[in-house]
Structure formats: C-alpha cells, structure tokens
C-alpha cells in the first residue's frame, strides 16, 4: 500500500502539471512527515497556501509515501481547515483527514480581569491569613498530640525523634563549627584593632562574651539550621505529598502530625540549644585564639575573666532562644511542607518560601527577645 | 513492511544493579516496522531492558545500537535527532507535573523550533482526540487527572512527534477494556499510515495477541523465547506455560484461533 521505492528521508516535492482535461493539478510526492520536512516547514506552508488560493486546482496526494499528523495538519491549515473540492487521496490518508475534521477546538483562554491588581492584593492578604490560621491549627494539633501521648506513652515516636535529633543536630555540628569559628575570628580581629587604639584591650572579653553568647551564637545556629534542616523537612513532606505517601499514611490511620511533625518539632527543640551551645563555644574559641595572637591575652586569663564579665543569664537567654527558634523552624517547615501540592513546581516554591519565612521569623524572634529581656544579663 | 534491517540491536547485553543481575547476555534485533512485545514476570527486567534501549541505563557489558549507531559515544547532534525519532510511554506516565496537559504534549513540538504555535495547537488537539481526551481537560494539571487519563495523555505525548520508533511500557495497564481496544485500533491505524516500529512491554494478553508481530519472553535473566506468538507458545518453559496456557491465556489465545502448544508439537 505504500510505494516502497521511496527513500525514507526524502522530503515532499510539489509538482504542478496540467491534466488531460486542462485542469491544473498539483502532484505531491515524497515524505510528508515532521522529520522529513524539518526546517522546510515554514517555506512549504507559505507555498501550499499560495496553491490553495486556486479553487480549480486538483490536489493529488496519492504519490506521498508517508504522511504523519504533522504533515496532515500542514496541508489542512493551508486549505483553511476544509477539504479542497478536488482531492485525490489514498484510503489511509482519507482516515487521517477524517480525524482532522473531528479534532476538537481548544478551550478559549480566560481573558485577564481588569481588576487584577486588587485581586492580587486580596489574594496576598488571604494567603497571609491562611498561613497564620494554618500555623495556629498546627500548633494546636501539636498540643493535642502531646496530651494524647502523655496518656498513651507507648505511642511516643522515639525512633523518629532520635533519627531527627541525629539529622538536625549531630550532622549540623560541622558546618556550625566552621561558620562559628570564622565569625569569632573576624569579630575578635576587628574589635581588637579598635580596642588597641584606646588601650582598652581587656574589654575584648566583654565584647566577645556578650555578643557571641547572647546574640551571634544563637542567630548563626538558627539561620544555618533553618536553611539546612528547614529545607529538608519541607522537601521531605512535599515529596511525600507528590508520591501520595501522606495519603497512604492517612488511610493506615497514622496521623501525620503525630508521626512526622511532632518528632521534628521535639527533636529540633532539643537539638537547637545544643547546637547553639556548640556554635557559641567554637566562636569564642576562634575569638580567643585571635585575642591571644593580636593582644597577647592568655587563654587562661580569657577563660577566668569570662564568667566575671558576662552574667550567666546571657547563656540561658541564648539557649532559650535556641529552643524557641528550633521549634518554630520545625513548625514553619512542616507547615509549608504540608501545603505543597502534588507537582514539582509547588515543591520548589514551597521549599524556598519555607526557608525564607523560617529565617525571617527567627530574626523577628530574636528582636522580640531583645526587647522583652532588655534588662536581663546586661550591666 | 517488515524487512531485515535492525532498528535496535542488542549484543551481549548485561545489566546489573550493584550485585543484582537483571540481564545476562541478551541478544536481540528489533526489525524495522515490526511490533515486538516484551513479556516476562514482574521484576523480570522488561522496563530495565527498555531503559537500556533508550540509553537511560549504561550496560555493564555489551552494546546497544539504535538506528545503527551505538548509544553511548554518540555526538550530541546525532543523539538529539535520534531522540526526536523515538517516542516513549513510561510505565507511570512521567507527565511534567508543573505543566498542563496541553503544554505537556506541546513541549516536544515546541522544542523542535520548526513549528509555529497555530500548527502546534492543531496538532495537540489532534493527539488529544486520538487518545479520546476531551478538549476541556486540556488545561488541567496532571495532578487533577485520573490514572487512565494520565496514561492516555502520556501516550499522546509519546506520539507527539509521530516517532518512527515507539517504546510503550505497559500501555494498556490501568485502562478499561474498551479503551484498551481503542488503543489497539489506534496503533493499528497508525501502522497503516506510517512505518512504525514498536517495542512494547505488556502483561495484557489481548493487546499482545492483537498487536505483536514477535514476542520476546524474558525470564531467568535471558530471552528464553523469541519469535511469533505461535512459536513462543510452543516453547517449553515454566513461565510460558503459566503465562500463555493458564486460563486467561487460553481465553485470549483461543479467541484468535491459535492452536495450543500441545497440538503443534
Ligand atoms: N534503579 C534500580 N536499582 C536497583 N535495582 C533495580 C533498579 N531498577 C530496576 N531494578 C531491579 O531490576 C529488576 C527488573 O526491574 P524492571 O523494572 O525492569 O521489572 P519489570 O520487568 O519492568 O517488572 P514490572 O512488570 O513489574 O514492571 C527488578 O528486580 C528490580 O528490583
Ligand atoms: Mg516495568
């Protein structure tokens, strides 16, 4: 049924002849397929449209070796979405054009509303409201879960808690140590230069002690953990949504909040103060090393003097900030994770939003702590 | 339409995942214009074999040639043009979840850079019609579709460029019998219009009987039988006995008047 002698890749050839009865006739031959036509499509389309302007013209498609949908659409569009009056076809081509006739029209795109700025603003406000209520509901759910678990200790997800402790705490030690050490070094270096000018070398201990223990240690740790663990928590829940694992858990009667979210919140609430302690310690070490080199303050002197000049309340404040930030980071990450829809774009967007929100909220929490405890631990 | 030329040639192919051996010394020639069906138990390596043919998996040993060119070590341009000649239906559909149904099908067409938007629109609607999807579903996202719809749209996307070589992984799994029949008819129609080579993994005996020119049976890490359905049914192997001569097999084969192995031998 198909002329076998055709070379498979020869493109379509148009030949205009004058038939027996004097009517003009267009003979098409070769391959009318997407691969065969390739870059010629545009030129050919214009050529065909020009031919189609002549209603007398007889189209002879029987010489075409192979025609695919793209080829058929090309002709169909040239003809203005109807058959030309004089058309010669092979039966299988007939079917191709029959299908073309039945093809549905695509739904019209929805025109853009003139009030779109208002709509965008309104949506943003509602979204913010949705996030707030969502977070409140999540926190409420956590409290209910805790209440339930107190009554049913057998259901406490120990394994999940310990796995999360390891992932968010132990595995974060390397990066927090590196960043903490470098910040300690830089801070100590810059401050010691200034202090030297005033001959106030000794105050390096106050500066490093208060700023690192009270402020920099907790903030560095919180921001690093928000980026590191926050994104992974959101992504994990998001992928579980995409792959319907969350639904599988639901139908097994395992509540997500209890098995997935609560362990993360508890684990990060425990791990964060420890990471804060570690970061502060390493940052102080960095500062101490530079103070020794730069100002000649001995390690022993530094360590002896530190408790005298920095009230211990600062340490508790730092650890408290760590615990609060840890739980908030976990809650926000899980909240965004649960909101992810089952498509990859939403996954990427949700993870970004989660990290950005977590870091912003961490800084807001820090500001609140600074105001509330403004007369604690400072002389 | 079938002639001797090999579109895909596998020579001495071994596949391993770590220490888990999936294929051992597979030799196969997929001829131009034929429909070859891969059958085998679940986990016998049908999908893995197809992934080898697509160059998604690197063989532990042996070579894969597609359109006469070795798959690994192609230059970019050749590989691209080869890819444009292939269409793939993945077992789970693999629709782009961030794109609408329409854009999923239009994507490969747009990537060609030779078609204008108007032509793409007509082509997409044609493909949707072909797989029996109504126009109102065109703007939906993959997450809003039913399992069978995902399959059909994935099929439409696989056929977007009217490929010469089509890989179908379980094309009819998840479709109701009527749609499966529609699918068989669709492939048959396409074969009258184009020289189409199809590699198909399937468990569906009706589709197998209706479409396949040759059947390759995968078991014990090898191709244990290769040939027309009639020849394959005659081979003595536990899997073949179970698959073709069970009740289901008898029914599907019986309808088309195949003689049972016992009678042939
Ligand atoms: N990426 C991978 N890593 C490790 N093992 C794999 C991988 N992909 C497949 N396998 C193994 O290879 C074997 C063959 O898998 P394959 O998906 O090809 O099976 P199949 O024949 O397509 O089965 P089904 O009919 O269930 O789809 C299985 O045992 C599977 O566990
Ligand atoms: Mg498979």
Secondary structure layout plus pairing:
The complex is a heterodimer of chains A (about 375) and B (about 260).
Chain A: E1 13-18, E2 24-32, H1 34-37, H2 41-52, E3 58-60, E4 64-67, H3 69-78, E5 87-88, H4 91-102, H5 116-151, H6 158-168, H7 173-198, H8 204-242, H9 245-251, H10 256-295, H11 299-309, H12 313-339, H13 344-372
Parallel strand pairs in A: 2-3, 2-4, 3-5
Antiparallel strand pairs in A: 1-2
Chain B: E1 6-17, E2 20-31, E3 35-40, H1 46-53, E4 61-66, E5 69-70, H2 76-84, E6 86-89, H3 101-112, H4 117-130, H5 147-158, E7 165-169, H6 177-193, E8 197-201, H7 205-211, E9 214-219, E10 222-227, H8 229-234, H9 238-245, H10 247-255, H11 261-264
Parallel strand pairs in B: 3-8, 3-9, 6-7, 7-8
Antiparallel strand pairs in B: 1-2, 1-4, 4-5, 9-10
Helix pairs in contact in B: 3-4, 3-5, 9-10
The structure holds adenosine-5'-triphosphate and magnesium ion.
Please count the helical segments of chain B: 11
Largest protein interface, residues of each chain:
A-B, 40 and 39 residues
Q: Which ligands are bound?
A: adenosine-5'-triphosphate, magnesium ion
Helical stretch count of chain A?
Answer: 13
Count of discrete structural domains of chain A: 2
Mean pLDDT of chain A: 89
The first-to-last residue Cα distance of chain B is 30 Å
């Amino acid at each position: 049924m198909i002329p076998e002698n055709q070379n498979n890749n020869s493109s379509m050839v148009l030949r205009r002849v004058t038939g027996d009865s004097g009517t003009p006739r267009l003979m098409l031959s070769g391959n009318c397929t997407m691969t065969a036509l390739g870059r010629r499509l545009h030129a050919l389309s214009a050529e065909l449209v020009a031919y189609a302007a002549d209603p007398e013209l007889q189209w002879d498609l029987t010489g075409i070796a192979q025609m695919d949908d793209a080829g058929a659409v090309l002709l169909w569009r040239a003809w203005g979405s109807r058959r030309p009056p004089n058309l010669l076809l092979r039966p299988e081509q007939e079917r191709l054009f029959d299908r073309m006739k039945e093809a549905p029209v695509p739904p019209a795109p929805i025109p853009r509303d003139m009030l779109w700025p208002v709509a965008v603003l309104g949506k943003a406000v509602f979204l913010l409201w949705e996030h707030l209520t969502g977070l409140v509901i999540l926190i409420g759910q956590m409290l209910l879960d805790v209440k339930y678990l107190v009554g049913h200790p057998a259901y406490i997800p120990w394994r999940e808690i310990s796995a999360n402790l390891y992932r968010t705490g132990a595995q974060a030690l390397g990066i927090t140590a590196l960043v903490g050490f470098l910040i300690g070094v830089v801070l100590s270096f810059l401050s010691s230069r200034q202090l030297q000018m005033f001959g106030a070398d000794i105050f390096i201990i106050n500066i490093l002690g208060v700023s690192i223990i009270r402020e920099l240690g907790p903030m560095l740790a919180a921001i690093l953990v928000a980026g590191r663990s926050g994104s992974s928590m959101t992504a994990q829940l998001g992928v579980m949504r995409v792959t319907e694992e969350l639904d599988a858990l639901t139908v097994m009667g395992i509540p997500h909040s209890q098995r997935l979210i609560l362990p993360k919140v508890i684990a990060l609430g425990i791990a964060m103060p420890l990471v804060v302690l570690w970061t502060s310690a390493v940052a102080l070490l960095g500062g101490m090393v530079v103070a020794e080199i730069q100002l000649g303050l001995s390690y022993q002197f530094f360590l002896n003097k530190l408790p005298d000049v920095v009230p211990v309340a600062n340490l508790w404040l730092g650890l408290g900030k760590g615990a609060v930030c840890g739980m908030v980071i976990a809650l926000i990450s899980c909240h965004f994770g649960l909101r992810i829809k089952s498509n990859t774009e939403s996954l990427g967007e949700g993870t970004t939003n989660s990290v950005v929100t977590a870091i912003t909220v961490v800084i807001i929490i820090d500001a609140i702590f600074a105001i509330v405890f403004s007369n604690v631990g400072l002389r | 339409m079938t002639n001797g030329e090999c579109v895909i040639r596998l020579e001495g192919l071994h596949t391993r995942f770590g220490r888990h051996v999936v294929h051992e010394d597979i030799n196969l020639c997929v001829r131009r214009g034929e429909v070859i069906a891969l059958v085998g138990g679940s986990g016998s390596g049908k999908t893995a074999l197809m992934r080898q043919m697509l160059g998604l998996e690197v063989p532990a040993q042996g070579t894969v040639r597609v359109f006469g060119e070795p798959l690994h070590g192609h230059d970019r341009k050749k590989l691209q043009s080869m890819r444009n000649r292939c269409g793939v239906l993945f077992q789970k559909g693999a629709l782009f979840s961030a794109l609408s149904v329409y854009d999923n099908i239009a994507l490969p067409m747009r990537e060609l850079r030779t078609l204008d938007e108007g032509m793409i629109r007509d082509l997409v609607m044609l493909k949707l019609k072909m797989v029996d999807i109504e126009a109102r579903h065109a703007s939906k996202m993959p997450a809003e579709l039913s399992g069978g719809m995902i399959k059909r749209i994935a099929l439409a996307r696989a056929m977007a460029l009217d490929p010469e070589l089509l890989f179908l992984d379980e094309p009819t799994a998840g479709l109701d019998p009527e749609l499966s029949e529609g699918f068989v008819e669709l492939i048959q129609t396409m074969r009258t219009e184009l020289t189409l080579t199809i590699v198909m993994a399937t468990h569906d005996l009706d589709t197998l009987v209706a479409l396949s020119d040759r059947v390759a049976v995968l078991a014990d890490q090898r191709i244990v039988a290769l040939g027309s359905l009639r020849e394959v049914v005659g081979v003595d192997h536990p899997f073949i006995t179970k698959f073709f001569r069970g009740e289901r097999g008898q029914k599907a084969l019986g309808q088309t008047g195949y003689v049972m192995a016992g009678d042939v031998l």
